[in-house]
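Quick illustration, no need to memorize.
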Amino acid sequence: MKTPTPVFIATQISAGLFLLAQAQAAPAPVDAPPDSPEATAKPYVLYMRTDVSVEQDKKLYPVKDVSGWDFIVAKDGQKIAVPMAGGAHRIEFQHVLTLAPATASLTGLKSERAYTPGTDPRMVRQREAAMTNAVLGDNRALAEAKFIKNKEGGFFGPGSLAGSQVPRGSVGGPGGAGQGQAGLGAASSRSSGSSTSDFDQMVQAEAMMSSDLGDVGGSRGRAESDLAKKLFDAVEIRFEVSSKVFLEKPYLVVITQFHEKDAKPGMIRNGVFAKALESIGSHPTKIDVVHGGFPPGFELDELQVHLYNEGKEIPTDVAQKRVPLSREEAFEYLKIDYFRGHKNSTLPATPAVGRPDRLTLARLTPNQLKATYFVKVIKNGRPGGVFADEECTQPADEAVAALFASARFYPALADGKAVDSVARAVLTDFDL
């Protein structure tokens, strides 16, 4: 698993935090009182985005999706599944400081070591007890069947006549009582030996059924002894997730750091696994994932949970380096970065922040969505009026004007200096 150099990441974070500090220190706009919902809401988030690439045929490809536990990459225009099970894989992460709408919520995250079903001592002992009981039950049934068969075909117990008939003529017949008794004694001796053996086998089988071999309490005790060894081989994560924006094909990427049992100090290993999820909407959904393959008895040092949709990370409450921002803070962050990247440039004004949400867009007519509007942009990036014509003589309708009024633009630049201008814009041009 390869990651960018720490120096690169640290530089990126430092620059981002510097810009963020400048943005948060910027004065509040005159059209948004400091205590207004517009000024206090935090609809955006600055976070460290993690882009994942995986090796396929000695080449790294960005992960576009996850199917089951497999990564999906695009290769030569075709979707290729890269199985994560069965061995080590080269995985690379690129970390990019990113500003995005805060749409997803991930709460109640709990992570702990666990057992896979095949190694859970409780399940193992239960299966052993069930198999033992099955075998003992079969033996008992066989012994009982043999005993009953012998009982029906001969004498029951040594020297008893119960359940049998004395052969005709053996008593009081020719040869006298002595001969009859002699015959009876021989028959009784042969039958009683076989019956006694079968009877003993049945008793022994019943005793084994009630012994510790098939006893549930004994199985539970052995399981508790095994549990005390803490030979965990899996990680379990649980949380609730929801999103204001519908996520059609979400998936998780979980990044762990761990060390093996009795490992030398500093011997840290990395483990990554992914899991496809059902679609996520505004209603909270409970997620519980167990993933095995860890060495028995491992110790978990760090765990990160990243949520993606169609190949793009969605910032959540547990995103790395997460900082919530108001609309004005987000715009100031973007504007400062914009000025730094375009020193001495001459550029027209372009859309920055203010993309309407899906519900708002759904209420607009097709003409309103597709139409090009002309917005007077003040050098601070705020709109000064919205018009339907380039000469700015025909005001746009109220619904469209209200949406543009809350939008923000990168101001026009003349040799790196912000100037007033008129910008051409469509409502869907805004990335944020």
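Residues 388 and 396 are 5 Å apart (CA to CA).
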